[in-house]
Specification:
Blueprint (H helix, E strand, L loop, with lengths): L5 E7 L2 E11 L2 E6 L2 E9 L4 E6 L2 E9 L5 E5 L4 E7 L1 H8 L11 E4 L3 E6 L6 E2 L4 E7 L2 E6 L4 E6 L6 E2 L3 E6 L1
Antiparallel strand pairs: 1-2, 1-8, 2-3, 3-4, 4-5, 5-6, 6-7, 7-8, 9-16, 10-12, 10-15, 11-14, 12-13, 14-16
Length: 174
């Protein structure tokens, strides 16, 4: 059995799929979707679309971010899909009985390793529930991490450019 680098569940319209990145070398990925292995060349282009080449076929996908975290509309040449990413953070929040913005969690953390791209708050700043506080890059994708409560930024434990571990507390809110 392969050891996956990353595993997430994706809801595509009404279908759920377990997606695992088994191996990665630059843009070349070995991806397991449910029980089928795909070897793909994946690029996030400058215009925000994703270019995927698999077995000589090229696919372009444009993702439109919705107001809710980790929910998107995916456009291909012929189809449109509702997409929801159910990653470690989302699964954690679902298991706690809420979604990201309904959580009462005071701390902002990343459930997976990554790199801090941008910190949008400073210590002492007021922050509102739903405000983006930090942007993290992980697995060639940038994710926004938002405040789950209204409060004041008590402490920022990271700096832009830092490499972070999974479950590391990034920002404390009081």
């Amino acid at each position: 059995m392969e050891n996956s680098i990353m595993s997430i569940e994706i809801k595509l319209n009404d279908r759920f799929a377990l997606v695992e990145i088994v191996r990665q070398e630059g843009n070349l990925l070995q991806v397991k979707v449910d029980d089928k292995i795909y070897n793909v060349d994946l690029m996030h282009t400058a215009d925000g679309t994703f270019s995927i080449i698999e077995e000589g076929h090229s696919y372009n996908i444009e993702l439109l971010t919705l107001e809710q975290p980790k929910k998107y509309i995916a456009y291909t040449l012929y189809n449109t899909y509702d997409v929801e990413i159910i990653d470690a953070e989302t699964r954690y929040l679902i298991n706690r009985g809420g979604s990201g913005l309904e959580s009462s969690e005071k701390n902002i953390f990343s459930p997976m390793p990554g790199k801090i791209v941008k910190i949008l708050v400073s210590e002492g700043d007021p922050i509102q529930k739903g405000d983006t506080a930090v942007i993290i890059s992980a697995m060639k994708m940038e994710s926004e991490y938002k405040a789950a409560i209204d409060g004041i930024v008590k402490k920022i434990n990271v700096s832009e450019g830092d490499t972070i571990e999974g479950n590391q507390i990034l920002i404390e809110i009081e």
